[in-house]
Specification:
Blueprint (H helix, E strand, L loop, with lengths): L2 H13 L5 E3 L4 E6 L2 E10 L2 E12 L2 E5 L8 H12 L3 E5 L5 H4 L2 H6 L3 E5 H9 L7 E3 L3 E5 L2 E6 L11 E4 L4 E5 L21 H11 L5 E4 L8 H14 L1
Helix pairs in contact: 6-7
């Protein structure tokens, strides 16, 4: 990219940073609360753009991503948007399961100096499915501390996939659920090719019991709200089991 084109691109990003929302050709960033942001990228499915939610946290020590963009064309624009908006670099990324809407950007991020993490179970599934792998793995539920923020990577049981984890921010009451949790906008469970629909209801029940006071619940696709998303996921599972 020439200097002139790069400058025009940065000016374009700056021009759309309004009302807490950033949009840049298939990348949408929405302020959630405090230093938390949900970013959405898209993949064309059945001739229509299909949204994939991820999240990031801005800390004094850098920005932490939770899952990667799904659209490979948005890898660099995401980093540029974060730098422009927050004057911070991305320093860490945790992917919540092995599917490519969570992991496809891991190699790119690693090449750009970002420390990337998955659970050991996710790493094994990435290897088996020839998906991008993280630089570091953790073997059990793990608490991370970055720039004064603490959050837990927690495996509640099998569901959307065998390895799906969630991220819990206890102080802020944010549950980042990824594709384990279905938005209230979803009329179906979506992709269940790697799902365990028998175990999934108990897994959601485990989440409701463990995090009963979650104020924000972020699903992997479509809109988000609070605990309604967990109950809605249970309803979808019960309907499928009938």
């Amino acid at each position: 990219m020439t200097f002139t084109k790069h400058l025009l691109y940065i000016l374009l990003l700056a021009s759309v940073c309004v009302a807490g929302v950033t949009k840049a050709q298939g990348l949408k960033i929405v302020h959630l609360t405090g230093e938390f942001y949900v970013y959405t990228t898209y993949k064309v499915m059945d001739a229509s753009p299909f949204p994939s939610n991820s999240m990031y946290l801005v800390t004094p020590k850098g920005v932490v991503l939770f899952d990667t963009p799904w659209d490979t064309a948005q890898f660099q624009p995401l980093l540029d948007s974060i730098q422009l908006r927050h004057h911070q670099k991305v320093v860490m990324c945790i992917a919540t399961h092995f599917h490519d809407d969570r992991t496809i950007g891991l190699a790119f991020l690693r090449q750009h100096g970002v420390k990337t993490y998955t659970s050991l179970q996710t790493d094994l599934l990435c290897q088996q499915n020839s998906n991008s792998r993280a630089q570091y793995v953790f073997t059990n539920d793990t608490t991370f501390n970055v720039g004064g923020y603490s959050f837990q990577a927690y495996w509640p049981g099998k569901g959307h996939t065998a390895d799906n984890i969630v991220i819990w921010f206890g102080k802020q009451k944010i549950l980042y659920g990824g594709c384990l949790i279905k938005s209230t906008s979803n009329a179906s469970l979506g992709n269940v090719a790697d799902a365990d629909v028998t175990a999934w209801p108990q897994t959601i029940t485990n989440l409701i019991a463990k995090f009963p006071d979650a104020q924000y619940v972020i699903p992997g696709h479509f809109g988000w709200s609070g605990m309604d998303a967990l109950r809605h996921t249970l309803d979808l599972l019960r309907k499928k089991g009938q």
